Fold this sequence. Notes:
Shape: globular
Strand content: 15-25%
Number of strands: 12
Structural class: alpha+beta
Amino acid sequence: MAKPTKSIVEYRQYHLPIHFPVLLLHGDRWRISDIKSGRLHFHNCLEIGICHSESGVMEFEGVPVSFKAGDISCIPKNLPHTTYSHKGEQSLWSYIFVDPVELFRDFFHNSMHGIEIEIKSNHSLPYFMNKEDYPKIHYLVTSIIDELEQQKTNYQTSVKGLLLSLYIEFIRIQNADELNTSIDSSSDNALVITPALDFINTNYMQQFTIDHLANLCHLSVTHFRRVFHSIMGVSPLEFIMNTRIARACVLLRSTEDSILSISEQVGFHSISSFNRCFLKTMEVTPRVWRNQTIQSEAKPGKQSILEFRGWV
Length: 312
């Protein structure tokens, strides 16, 4: 008997601007086909979308969720999913990608007190919010897109304020629904490894064991490794390494720190190990990547806003 075809999970690393970590993708290019993709994908930042027309389905590890025109989506980072339109339709979308921690840092004087809770990959926040039930969220998202499109005077300050209001609304929904929602941690879906993903993203620079990650998810180490790999397409160790490399990319772009210092800041014990992992993931050395990025950002017309890196 032939083995079942394993779905491919693709990591998408969005390079958001350092001082204004917000990216708008919109226009006719972002029409979603009615052909179901054979691969799930997840990304390194929060995705907020609005469906302008038609309808379709978004799948989260095999669980389909329908959407229609006017719906707002909120997809946390590290949540595998795929989107396709209903047969004969091509839904039109606009997407906002944002790093809330970096964007709101100035509001809270380098701390996140007051909005400490991250938007999690769990059932407590509905992934789709319709205009009728969530008019405030719909208004905020459309206002943000309008500001980003027109780029009037002080638009970045306006966008920051609107996104903060939107983010707080998401957190309120999450907190309210958590009171009535429980998660079955024994199920083999993307939700069961959320505690591990959250811990890695917060503590990537520290040294910790796979046993600790498994305990966070209330799974045996063997079962945790199997479930993690089936969902993310890589082992827990590979995911940790790629998370460190992603953070290193931010530091290489935004600071003048030495490559040795950056390797230590993101959790590598030796510069040789860092260089080896960076080359494997990014296909160039850290020094070459930094130089190429500086040159690219100096020429906006040639800048890549999206890179597909890491693993499949």
